[in-house]
Amino acid sequence: MAASVILPAVAYSLFWKSFHRTVLLWMVHGGLICCTVRQLSSPTVSGDPTALFADLDFQWFPLRHIGIVALPATLLLGWAGSRMSRRTSAETVREAEARVLTGLDTT
Questions:
Q1: Alpha-carbon span 67 to 73, nearest angstrom
Q2: What is each CA distance from 9 to 3, 39, 63, in whole angstroms?
Q3: What's the CA gap between 22 and 27, in Å, rounded?
Q4: Which residues contact 78 (CB under 8 A, 6 or more apart)?
Q5: Where are the extended beta strands (E) located within the chain?
Q6: DSSP 3-state assignment of 44?
Q7: What mean pLDDT is reported for the chain?
Q8: Could you tell me how far CA 25 lies from the centroid of its own chain?
Q9: 36-59: average pLDDT
């Protein structure tokens, strides 16, 4: 679960100019919700003889590996967070420079 959330956040922070706090929050919260829902509804929890609850069958997500869906969903959530945000890249650069130079939180 952590890799499905942290890997896109690291990739966005390294390679995307419009990455900022709002994008990170969209990615982390949305990615964790996506991972948790997918994991709880997968065959690793129910509907399989080797599942956590083998006698119950409430699984609706057929894949055991949630990262196949959660990783692209987290990337899309990061993109959506950047589009929903009102910040420009110039504001993001100014904020980052202020934090680096002063060591203070500018929010």
A1: 9
A2: 10, 20, 24
A3: 9
A4: 8, 9, 12, 19, 23, 24, 26, 27
A5: none
A6: coil
A7: 80
A8: 8
A9: 80
**Residue 28 CA: distances (Å) to CA of 18, 56, 82:** 16, 30, 13
Cα 76 versus chain centre, distance? 9
Burial-class residue 107 by CB neighbours within 10 Å (0-12, 13-18, 19+): exposed
Name the β-bridge partners of 46.
53
Tokens of 50: 């080797």
CB 38 within 8 A of CB 69: yes
pLDDT digits (tens, 9 = 90+) for 62-97: 877 888 888 899 999 988 988 887 666 666 667 777
